[in-house]
Write a structure and sequence with these properties.
By secondary structure, this protein is of the alpha/beta class. It has helices at about 15-20, 25-35, 50-55, 80-95, 105-115, 125-135, 150-160, 170-185, 200-210, 210-220, 235-250, 265-270, 295-305, 315-325, 340-350, 355-360, 380-385, and strands spanning about 1-5, 45, 60-65, 115-120, 140-145, 165, 190, 225-230, 255-260, 310, 365-370. About 45% of the residues lie in helices and about 15% in strands. Bound molecules: pyridoxal-5'-phosphate (PLP).
Length: about 375
């Protein structure tokens, strides 16, 4: 299913708060923070010329986030960055002077971090990032997971020393429970989704994601014409779309948000013309995208700068994983987890849909940019699906 965004307009400005969050200046500061991270490396951008020929487009580029900061997904950029920023803010306030990331490991800053607790809810990847950030600064992390999160994913988060709490119900239930317990205990809640009155921290998380665009713009030899990014609550799609709009202005590519048909909260919000919570349905194989309510900030950005919203089916996601794992011609193989190849699934569907292709202006000259948002973050599930 495809829905063109009738509102989207190259002159439509972002809300000033979001323009600040996703600005080039802010993204450069995130890159500076990253240079202080031991396991930081720019993730590769792969070209898939054989697949582009087969699908009838000019070029396909995919940024492979499977190796990001040793965590297996782009989420490594958001939660841990927010944790570091919050520790630096607290230290600046307590010490009465500006405290920079360069001094994060000094005894007085570590002593302040040791008193802090960071809580979050997660489908898996965001929790890993918050837990890694807390470990790095020497703080405590408490991570809430819903009943559908696999034991492998729970173990991966716990390996960073986080305390784990299981919550009955869906991702959205775990978000509510984490917020409630954090509020009661005076912990900082580091959520990747935002709601009325809670914007600053999810904005920092999204700011962390903009690094992918900074890197990609240096890696690409020519600007893409189209970008397809998968969405759970919409945070990563909004960070990419918003930053592209700010960095490239009227040269920005067409931007399409892709979701599982079973959990299409951004798509349905676009249809309704306002952010809405949708009914919980059957679980989706695209586990990280199983969200039923968009992030408020993400919606604010996407409703202005996304050009289209679309859904893909379960089998499309699995087909994309297999396509990336076993490429045609001399294209490189890419390990994409269940939610990693969903942008490619969206592109494939859009190209097979005359109306969507027309609306998006897809042609044999189109240059497509995609993000493999995760590697095999649940190796057992990956092996099962790609076998
Ligand atoms: C691998 C992967 N891809 C995409 C997403 C979607 O991100 P968002 O919820 O910000 O839309 C997530 C979220 O957890 C994820 O882990």
């Amino acid at each position: 299913m495809f829905l063109a965004n009738r509102q989207s307009d190259y002159r439509l400005a972002l809300d000033p708060r979001d323009a600040d969050t996703l600005s080039v200046k802010a993204a450069e500061e995130v890159e500076r923070f990253l240079r202080h991270r031991e396991n930081h490396a720019v993730t590769p951008l792969r070209a898939l010329p054989a697949l582009a020929r087969e699908l009838g487009v000019g070029a396909i580029y995919i940024k492979d986030e499977g190796l990001r900061l040793g965590l297996g997904s782009f989420k490594a950029l958001g939660g841990s960055y927010a944790v570091i920023r919050l520790v630096l803010d607290a230290a600046s306030e307590r010490l009465g002077r500006a405290v920079d990331v360069a001094t994060l490991q000094t005894p007085d800053v570590r002593a302040i971090a040791a008193d802090m607790t960071f809580a979050c809810a997660t489908d898996g990847n965001h929790g890993r990032s918050v837990a890694q950030g807390a470990k790095l600064v020497g703080a405590r992390a408490v991570v809430f997971v819903h009943s559908g999160v696999s034991q492998e994913r729970v173990a991966a988060i716990a390996s960073f020393g986080a305390e784990m709490v299981r919550v009955a119900g869906s991702y959205d239930d775990s978000v509510e429970e984490a917020a409630r317990v954090a509020d009661k205990n005076g912990w900082s809640i580091v959520s990747d989704t935002s709601w009325p009155g809670y914007e600053r921290i999810p904005a920092l998380v999204m700011q962390g994601y903009t690094v992918m665009v900074r890197e990609a713009l240096r890696q690409l030899s020519e600007l893409p014409t189209h970008v397809f990014v998968q969405a759970g609550v919409g945070g990563v799609a909004a960070a990419i779309a918003g930053h592209l709009a700010l960095a490239l202005a009227d040269q920005r590519p067409r931007f399409v948000v892709v979701e599982p048909a079973r959990a299409a909260c951004v798509y349905e919000s676009a249809r309704a013309g306002r952010p809405i919570k949708i009914e919980e349905g059957e679980p989706t194989v695209m586990a990280m995208l199983e969200c039923y309510e968009p992030s408020l900030i993400a919606w604010r950005v996407l409703s202005r700068v996304a050009d289209g919203f679309m859904t893909v089916e379960e089998e499309d996601a699995v087909a994309a994983m297999k396509q990336l794992a076993r490429p045609i011609g001399a294209d490189p193989a890419i390990i994409a987890g269940e939610s990693g190849g969903v942008g490619l699934a969206g592109l494939t569907r859009a190209l097979a849909d005359h109306e969507a292709s027309e609306a998006l202006g897809l042609s044999p000259q189109s240059r497509i940019f995609l993000i493999n948002t995760e590697g095999a973050t649940d190796p057992l599930r990956y092996a099962e699906l790609v076998a």
